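Researcher: Let's walk through a ligand-bound prediction step by step. First, I give you the protein sequence. Second, the SMILES string for flavin mononucleotide. Third, you return the three-dimensional complex as structure tokens. Ready?
Model: Ready.
Researcher: Here are steps one and two:
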Amino acid sequence: MQTRIDNKKIVLGVCGGIAAYKSVELLRLLNKQGAKVRVVMTQNARSFVGPLTFEALSGYPVCFDLFQNSDSKKDSSIKHIDWARDADAVIIAPATANIIGKFANGIADDALSTFMLALTAPVLLCPSMNSQMYANKAVCRNLSMLRADGYFIVEPKAGELACGDSGPGRLPEPKDILDRLLHCLAPKDLKDKKVLVTAGPTREPIDPVRFISNPSSGKMGYSIARAAEHRGAEVVLVTGPTNLPDPVNVKVIRVETAKEMALAVFEHMEEARIIIKAAAVSDYRPVNLAKQKIKKGKDEITLFLKKNQDILKELGRKKKNQVLVGFAAETENLEINAEKKLAEKKLDIIAANLVDSLSSGFGTDTNRVTLFYKDKTKEALPEMGKDDLAHILLDRIVKVLDVSR
Ligand SMILES: Cc1cc2nc3c(=O)[nH]c(=O)nc-3n(C[C@H](O)[C@H](O)[C@H](O)COP(=O)(O)O)c2cc1C
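Model: Step three, the predicted complex:
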């Protein structure tokens, strides 16, 4: 499966901090995503994790000494220059207070700090240390200097630290560092654009403990919100109930019912340039909400349902210069239903899929959709990860924006 860091050359810089063990996990995650990762370590990092671990997992010798490699060969190649020239991006995780001081002041007295001076690729710096050290004035000053120099700083998480203290200083989880790497490498073609995304199911209450809903996990909408944020957009995500964590730098509005979703969407639609409706909104809601739990009694009971407002149709009616994109999950007649929806709701693009397969639709990590465009053309996409599909959809939206400019 193609990912956005497939075949990218990433250098992972590891320093002598207690969180060095997490960089092993990070390396594995980057490898899994198809990146080619080389590791440069400080001498002190070797007291925490052996270079052999990184060498075995990365498939490359590790550079920890300007004059020697982990495979103990004296090497005539100038690794710190060659690797710096080659790198698409660099992640320093964990970044110690010491290395931050060196980077900020251009000191080059070991393999990692020397490598950094020869570098032009973007750097993601992940400080991790005791919270008093992190609050130290010199460390703060050094971090501000690096920020001004164009380093991307990934703020440490607050929580219980290895030293027993509690506060900011924990290295973020590898998946969160990967998320910031993707942000760092993504084109910023949605900069200054406001994007409104909806995701997840809605719940229509029947009584205080029951509701009508559907199995939407919210993954597609969350992938779109993350991808748009990576590409520089200001993103509002209106989401029904899901188990997914809030995407970084995204304004998340959590709702339950279709009515609440409609209110939140209409409140934010005016300011949005792009609106993508990936939520699976209930078409109907119970007419009456029982105040108490409905007791088991008769063999059959009747539930009267009332049609909910069609949010997408209303958006189509109200839209001014927005690009409006919808999703259609169908169980039959995909093309006919999608084209009908596209026209009726005045959409620019509709992503339609048949929810009859295990790899496509509700709850899965992959999706296979056909995109139908306003100009009556269509594009059948192969099965792919929802993150990749989100970027392809945004690529197509950027094209629509370019045409309408
Ligand atoms: C057990 C232990 C844990 C440490 N953890 C950290 C840490 O998490 N962050 C940090 O900045 N320094 C930490 N230090 C201090 C660094 O190892 C020390 O400042 C060292 O000079 C860093 O070297 P380097 O930046 O070249 O890797 C720790 C030291 C010890 C002994």
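Researcher: And what stands out?
Model: The first helix runs from residue 20 to 32. The pocket of flavin mononucleotide is lined by residues 15-19, 42, 44-45, 94, 96-99, 128-129, 133 (CB under 6 Å).
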